[in-house]
Write a structure and sequence with these properties.
Layout (H helix, E strand, L loop, with lengths): L11 H11 L4 H23 L17 H26 L1
Length: 93
């Protein structure tokens, strides 16, 4: 991915603090990391403040009978699979 130059004006005291952390040769990387983190934070806040629910029942038909029933089904599948593995091992012995 390419990069583009951007002219950014910073107050001297802020620049000193950035240099103390990142060094004068690490300013760009520091500012990129900081900007990405802030953008991610703002997107998360916007998501949390959104009135539209993130979870939609129609996207999760496996939970139509409730989460507890779905988990019981998963566990029984796992127990069935483990029991089959134990029987195969007994036959090989």
């Amino acid at each position: 991915m390419g990069t583009q130059r951007a002219h950014v004006v910073l107050p001297p005291d802020l620049l000193e603090e950035i240099d103390a952390i990142a060094g004068p040769r690490g300013r760009s990387a520091f500012l990129v990391d900081t900007a990405r983190a802030e953008l991610r934070r703002r997107k998360q806040l916007a998501f949390l403040e959104d009135k539209e629910p993130a979870w939609k029942d129609e996207n999760h038909p496996e939970l139509a009978h409730g989460a507890a029933a779905w988990i019981r089904g998963l566990r029984s599948q796992s127990e069935y699979r483990v029991a089959g593995q134990v029987q195969r091992k007994k036959r090989k012995s």
